[in-house]
Design brief:
Blueprint lengths: L2 E2 L14 E5 L6 H17 L2 E5 L5 H10 L4 E4 L7 H12 L3 E5 L10 E3 L3 H15 L3 E7 L4 H14 L5 E8 L4 H7 L1
Parallel strand pairs: 1-3, 2-3, 2-4, 4-5, 5-6, 7-8
């Protein structure tokens, strides 16, 4: 069994089995679904137990999920990297001997055991370069996710790359929290 959405009290771990708790900021994003599919593939191969929770972009819910996990490892993509509630829950987990791995974002005022991050600034540069290669000019609407380090870095890389090119103009910015159902009406 890969991803299990049952109450952990219903599950009896096998001796020697690694237990991994995962909480992404949302599962309503193809990036996290793809990332989770890879973790699930590995845990299926190794016979480890994977519990995935969806905080639905709510800090309080993610904090509760972290407190609920009594695993060997917690993989987190924080709803908000500087959330006092999330940081406090992670500190309690780490004090209990649980290893913390942050993916695709950083946490402020908290040192994780491992990080898996993209170079989001460079990704923004690459997106801008590709746009400039394909189009001679553009009026650009930025879809933002404020408070998320990865999204802010990506936009900054994009803006820094187009800033000296007057043919590429940012005509608007909309907060979408990285959610398609918010982005479509905003556009």
């Amino acid at each position: 069994v890969g991803v299990i959405y049952l109450n952990a009290s219903q599950l009896k771990p096998v001796r020697g089995q690694m237990r991994i708790g995962v909480t992404y900021m949302t599962m309503n994003n193809e990036f996290y679904q793809t990332l989770n599919a890879e973790i699930e593939r590995v845990t299926d191969e190794t016979g480890d137990l994977l519990l995935v929770r969806n905080p639905e972009l709510e800090e309080e819910k993610q904090s509760q999920q972290i407190d609920y996990f009594r695993q060997h490892v917690i993989v987190i993509n924080p709803v908000k990297g500087d959330s006092p509630k999330i940081i406090a829950s992670l500190k309690r987990a780490q004090q209990a001997g649980i290893k913390i791995i942050a993916v695709d974002s950083q946490l402020s005022h908290f040192t994780v055991d491992a990080s898996v991050v993209s170079d989001n600034y460079q990704a923004g540069v690459v997106v801008a370069q590709r746009l400039m290669k394909q189009k001679n000019e553009a009026k650009i609407l930025l879809l933002e996710h404020k408070g998320t380090v990865s999204a802010e870095q990506r936009i900054q890389g994009f803006l820094d790359t187009i800033q000296s090119e007057p043919a590429y103009q940012v005509v608007g910015r909309e907060e979408t929290r990285g959610q398609t159902e918010l982005a479509l009406p905003a556009v």
